[in-house]
Amino acid sequence: MVNLGAIHSIETFGSVDGPGVRFVIFLQGCSMRCKFCHNVDTWKAQTPTTSAHSLLKKALRYRSYWGKSGGITVSGGEPLLQIDFLIELFTLAKESGIHTTLDTSGQPFTYDEPYFSKIEALMKVTDLVLLDIKSIDSKAHQDLTGHGNENILSFAWYLDSIHKPVWIRHVLVPGYSEVEGRLVRLADFVDSLANVERVEVLPYHTLGVYKWKELGIPYPLEGVKEPSQEMIEEANQILRTSENR
What we know:
Strand order of the largest sheet: 2-3-5-6-7-8-9
Largest sheet: 7 strands, mixed
Shape: globular
Distance between the termini: 40 Å
Order of helices and strands: EEEEHEHEHEHHEHEHH
């Protein structure tokens, strides 16, 4: 069976979504509604039209630029919503010796079948997971994204249990990230995991606000300023982003 994917866009020379130079594939569709989302145009699911074979063929045109550390990253939207397509794409990539990275919020994760068996199959052909933790506090996570974080943290524990390399990412949002000791709680959670290779602080920005306006959606963080350099430096210190783990 050929699984088709709904592709939003492609970045051929990505440098921030995993190690080395990356061929970054942004999939369409996301069930979370992050108030700070800069890819709001990826929320709505579209009809899948692209085969894994054709997508990999396009990616391989850029292989000479990847070196030893580069490869393919699949982001979104939320790529785990298209898990069958993702398994096929990453399986083909590994057969060609390509490094695979999954950039995900982890929100679709469940131990329920048949989904969990698919997660297990996907992890066998995934080299690295970039796990976005929007907030360590479930109520704040609900407020920011429309969903709690319990199954996301469960996904993190599962990845730790199978020793899957992970980079943790956190968007630093003033008025959300740093209150009630949330950064310290996040740091404690990360420290409880043995598989985290890196932690990245992604400062909140408003570069994607125009997409909300184009789609006629009120921007919920209107008036929230980008974090100061001092706030960014403090977050980096608390989360020990400069350390090799």
